[in-house]
Write a structure and sequence with these properties.
Helix content is 35%, strand content 19%. It is of the alpha/beta class. It binds nicotinamide-adenine-dinucleotide.
Length: 506
């Protein structure tokens, strides 16, 4: 094989017409009611799949945020005292409502986001509902300690209390699933939440809130106001009536939020640049298949996508050939077509980043083997070819920044310790992968890789919703944990009650 030889262009599926639903005018959810924004203006939402307008949402003002915060504070007084088993029942009703709206939510996701409907959008809605079921179970077992006291007349109790009024600010890549990761445990634990969906997936967020309201929720415990980060997002983050912030998004925004939040409690889940390491004793065919999944699933727009591939030099050429075979099998096209395995990128910003990263790597000596540009002949120019690039040098942007696109970026390591060194240049430390047949080597790597999560012998997107997920200490991927009871524990505080049972009238 000649590494320099550019492979044939990807085989692209023929774009077909996606049937468009009528573009609806959505409303904001404030204090249990669907209302227009006080600006009287609307924002049109364009689909990356077709380029057409798929709906409108009201443009919110600071006044709308003030109203929502006031309603949240009032709702919180009562809701926090609702018995946990009643809150658990509410979570089950929300899960059922999401199930009922499954197809509608998935279709909107596909159109707003570009996710293949069958393979990615539907499972994503199912996981959203699952998060509410998990939270319902977790809150029933949110047990706290009774602490032995030095004074024999005292009893010391601890209680988990909800933090209060939260804002949940989310990205566009999993527009109902990621919100549910904090809405479900947060609401189950007695918090009230103002949810701000991404400006790139506002309709999915509003449609999810509509489904949640079918569960007959008390007014004000969940409110939904989409809008741009520097306005709506910032008004929420800096509002004195908001107690805590759950943010998922880029580290750039995370830093801004941390600087604007003052002393508010923060749960920050940010980006990743995690490598997958392929050792010379791995099952290479399986490793290539699963690594390609990590690169091309959701067109690579996942925080735990396989951003880099670090290959042991002994198997480098063979592995590159296998990755090319995998890339050739990707079918790019209309996400509503069940034969399509990859849809368009969600937005122009992501496409430009791919272009910048690929140009930079090639300039620094990497070899572009496959793809590497926007695909032609599609309804929008957000359809990006699955891309394989080899011999990516250490100083390339790809080695240090999240690319967030359909990219298999391969680098070579001399031996195990060199591979560990290359892996640990990742400043995010969110998720890494490793393929090996040796238990000894698996643990050698597990003990040395600086990552919050490591997947051995499967793709880096592998996860289960009740498992803790988040970055390693000392990295820029945030703090706190996403996943079932671990998130719930981040959304409550421990309250200590000391009782003296002798200082009472008998
Ligand atoms: P982003 O940071 O641009 O935006 C995320 C959210 O923050 C949006 O709702 C946006 O409107 C809001 N925002 C922007 N500026 C703000 C400000 N000044 N104040 C308040 N809010 C503001 O991220 P994105 O492009 O939407 O999403 C992609 C990023 O999300 C990637 O870096 C990806 O890795 C990360 N992500 C992380 C996880 C995780 O669990 N760690 C999961 C999914 C995505």
């Amino acid at each position: 094989m000649t590494l320099e030889a550019k492979a044939p262009l990807p085989k692209l599926s023929k774009p077909k017409d996606t049937e468009m639903p009528e573009a609806r005018h959505y409303k904001l959810l404030i204090n249990g009611e669907w209302v227009d924004g006080s600006t009287g203006e609307e924002v049109a939402v364009h689909s990356p799949v077709t380029g057409e307008i798929i709906g409108y949402y009201p443009k919110a003002s600071k006044e709308d945020i003030d109203r929502a915060v006031k309603a949240a504070r009032e709702a919180e007084e009562k809701y926090r005292l609702m018995p946990p088993f009643e809150r658990a029942a509410l979570m089950h009703r929300i899960a059922e409502a999401i199930d009922r709206n499954r197809e509608k939510l998935a279709r909107l996701k596909s159109l707003e986001n570009g996710k293949p409907y069958e393979a990615e959008a539907l499972p994503c809605v199912d996981e959203t509902a699952e998060n509410f079921r998990i939270a319902a179970e977790d809150v029933k077992r949110l047990e706290s300690a009774i602490i032995p006291s030095r004074d024999g007349n005292k009893r010391i109790f601890t209680f988990y209390r909800p933090y209060g009024v939260w804002t949940t600010i989310t990205p566009w890549n999993f527009p109902t699933l990621i919100p549910s990761e904090t809405l479900a445990p947060g609401l189950a634990a007695g918090n009230v939440i103002i949810f701000k969906p991404s400006e790139y997936a506002p309709l999915s967020g509003l449609a999810m809130a509509e489904a949640m309201m079918e569960a007959d929720l008390p007014p004000g415990i969940i409110q939904c106001i989409p809008g741009e980060g520097p306005t709506v997002g910032d008004w929420l983050v800096s509002h004195e009536g908001v107690d805590a912030i759950a943010f998922t998004g880029s580290d750039r925004t995370g830093r801004i939020i941390a600087s604007r939040a003052g002393l508010k409690h923060l749960l920050l889940e940010m980006g990743g640049n995690g490598p997958t390491i392929i050792l010379d004793d791995a099952d290479l065919e399986k490793a290539a298949e699963l690594t390609a999944f990590g690169c091309f699933y959701e067109a690579g727009q996942v925080c735990c996508a396989t951003e880099r591939i670090l290959v042991h030099k002994n198997i480098h050429e063979e592995f590159v050939e296998l990755m090319l075979e995998q890339a050739r099998q990707v079918v790019l096209g209309d996400p509503m077509d069940e034969n399509v395995t990859m849809g368009p990128l969600c937005n122009e910003m992501t496409a430009r980043k791919m272009e910048r990263h690929i140009a930079d790597a090639v300039e620094k000596g990497a070899k572009l083997l496959y793809g590497g540009k926007r695909a032609e002949g599609y309804p929008t120019d957000l359809y990006y070819e699955p891309t394989v690039i080899d011999l990516v040098p250490e100083d390339a942007l790809i080695s240090h920044e999240e690319s967030f696109g359909p990219l298999a970026a391969i680098s070579v390591g001399e031996d195990d310790d060199d591979l560990i060194r290359l892996a640990n240049i990742d400043r995010y430390g969110l998720q890494m992968g490793l393929f090996t047949s040796s238990i000894r080597r698996a643990f050698y790597f597990a003990d040395r890789l600086r990552t919050g999560n490591l997947v051995i012998n499967d793709n880096t997107d592998y996860w289960e919703p009740h498992v803790p997920f988040g970055g390693a200490g000392g990295t820029v991927s945030g703090h706190g944990r996403i996943g079932g009871k671990y998130t719930m524990l981040d959304m409550v505080y421990l309250n200590t009650v000391v009782l003296d049972f002798m200082n009472v009238r008998d």
